[in-house]
Design brief:
It contains 11 helices and 23 strands. It is of the alpha+beta class. It binds adenosine-5'-triphosphate and magnesium ion.
């Protein structure tokens, strides 16, 4: 993409009411736009990052047998009343509204209820199980706290997978596969080493739910990490009894601030029973389906990555999620010779399928470098007078600041 054609502009300052580092940087770099507190628009560069995150998750969900679909955002009140999750006294973060034709609806906060109903039309016998279905969809939650930028949106993207099994054993097999798939997802995004399987509350038919907590000072959660075992316990369940159950010792745990990147839940028959999702077992009896749910927040992950991979100059995207791998910065000014060399390199890289943002704007070098640092592509290629005179290009690694002189052949070989 030619930067002269990119409609977004970088800016020196973030909006005054924006407290979170992730949103400050992303707004300044032109990746997101703040519409209201906790409500963000994803601009072209931001959407490229988000799509990369989504694609990594999609690949790993497909690898464990997930089938992608999309449920509705508008929710059926009657359905949620059956599980007692419609009443504001029970669930306090609904956005509700009315149909002109009469009756209420709400914007989806999560999707256990509708997916369970969908499955009841498709699952009848033990032969139909197990099934794993997932979606990427915007969720809407009337969150009170909105100080974490895109890490806590009122409208945010979630990947939610739901598993349907014949019994607890079959459920457990998938649950463990999902845990491993989640580890792979976070490793691929470069946050594997600071993301811990964390035992937390909220398990149904199991003692705990499992959260994937990423250590960050910007986090809203507190966890206690066992570095050796690479697992953690959420503060909310830190009791002597729970530590004993988990085989952990208080003395080996270190307190850390963290943010929940994902979680996996055993739901048991919490939804299948009230919604009548049953199957005919091999012995001819009718049995409730055993369910699990598995969430990850792609927009929150983008915020986590922006928080963790950034410095005083701006964003530093890991290669796996970067909007473009290379930032080709031309210092041609009005020099036709340098311009044609830069144009040619851009064309060649693009032809090879390499993603390049080409700063072909007529601007000062200092401004271009500052923008490039702020936007944070993994590598910068500078095309200046040396490229014309001696065929030397400057290659700058954004993360380390390491600079090397390379030839065009070197670049194309990479
Ligand atoms: P939290 O405790 O942080 O509010 P949660 O327990 O409500 O999270 P779930 O309802 O299980 O989270 O949602 C699944 C995933 O969706 C979370 O692990 C997180 O990555 C993401 N998520 C949840 N709430 C938000 C939000 N307000 N903004 C962005 N992402 C979110
Ligand atoms: Mg929440």
């Amino acid at each position: 993409m030619r930067q002269s054609q990119l409609f977004t502009r970088t800016r020196r300052d973030a909006p005054k009411d924006e407290e979170a580092k992730n949103a400050q940087l992303l707004i300044r770099a032109g990746f997101v736009h703040k519409e209201m507190a906790g409500v963000y628009t994803y601009l072209p560069l931001g959407l490229r990052v988000l799509n990369n995150i989504v694609q990594i998750i999609r690949e790993e969900m497909n690898a464990i047998g997930g089938q992608e679909m999309v449920l509705t955002a508008l929710q059926d009140k009657k359905l949620w009343e059956k599980t007692d999750r419609w009443d504001d006294k029970k669930v306090d973060n609904w956005f509700k509204t009315e149909f002109k034709s009469g009756g209420e609806t709400g914007l989806g906060i999560t999707h256990e209820e509708p997916i369970t109903r969908v499955m009841s039309e498709h699952i009848a016998s033990y032969r139909d199980l197990p099934v794993y279905a997932y979606q990427f969809q915007n969720k809407f939650r009337n969150e009170l706290r909105a100080k974490s930028g895109i890490m806590r949106g009122k409208e945010f993207l979630m990947k939610d997978l739901y598993s349907f099994a014949k019994n607890e054993e079959e459920h457990q097999v998938f649950f463990e596969k999902a845990r491993e798939a989640y580890k792979t997802v976070f490793a691929r995004m470069g946050i594997g080493d600071r993301t811990y399987v964390t035992f937390a509350s909220g398990g149904m038919f199991s003692a705990f739910s499992e959260e994937f907590q990423t250590v960050s000072d910007a986090g809203e959660d507190t966890i206690f990490v066992d570095e050796e075992k690479k697992i953690a316990v959420n503060k909310e369940v830190l009791t002597d009894e729970n530590l004993a159950t988990l085989g952990l010792e208080r003395g080996n745990l270190v307190e850390k601030k963290s943010i929940e990147a994902g979680n996996i839940f055993t739901l048991g028959t919490r939804f299948s029973e009230p919604l009548g999702l049953t199957y005919m077992a091999e012995d001819g009896t009718k049995q409730p389906v055993v369910m699990g749910s598995y969430g990850i927040g792609p927009t929150r992950l983008m915020g986590i990555i922006a928080e963790l991979f950034s410095d005083e100059k701006g964003l530093v995207w890991p290669e796996a999620v970067a909007p473009f791998q290379y930032h080709l910065v031309s210092l041609a000014g009005t020099d036709a010779g340098i311009t044609s060399i830069a144009d040619e390199l851009y064309a060649e890289l693009t032809l090879k399928g390499i993603s390049v943002l080409y700063d072909d704007r007529d601007a000062r070098a200092g401004e271009k470098f500052a923008d490039s640092d702020l936007m944070g592509m993994p590598y910068r290629i500078v095309v200046g007078r040396d490229a014309l005179a001696t065929g030397e290009y400057e290659l700058v690694h954004r993360a380390t600041g390491e600079v090397s002189k390379v030839s065009k052949e070197d670049i194309l070989k990479r």
